[in-house]
Amino acid sequence: MFGGGGGGLNPRKMEQMMEQMGIDVEDIDAEEVIIRTDEYDLVFDDAEVTKMDARGQETYQVIGSPAEVEAGSAGGSAGGADDSDAGSSIPDDDVDLVATRAGVSEDEARAALEDNDGDLATAIESLE
């Protein structure tokens, strides 16, 4: 295997190799991860999440044991404070992208994304 020794690759050496190949690795301090499917939601509490960015292609690794719950029942999808729900339902990166592409404020971009169910292309078209 790589790097000699009995048990495989030293984590520090692995990190250096990945860095040399242009792969950035970042641990994310996630409180909860929800994967939604048509049939059920998978809810990971206290999951270990690692983000790898290989020249712009982001990959997320989630390690943990999920609970399987009824579809759409996980997370803060129920009513409540509209402002906080709206802010969390549309990722800030999407808002920035739409605002930049359409040449509008972030508030206008967020409203367009909300009106178009988070569809970036449709939101941009509606603002142009």
TrEMBL record:
Residues 8-75 form the NAC-A/B domain. Pfam families: NAC. One of its GO terms (biological process) is protein transport. Residues 65-95 are annotated as: Disordered. Keywords: Protein transport, RNA-binding, Transport. One of its GO terms (molecular function) is RNA binding. Belongs to the NAC-alpha family. Homodimer. Interacts with the ribosome. Binds ribosomal RNA. Contacts the emerging nascent chain on the ribosome. This is Nascent polypeptide-associated complex protein.
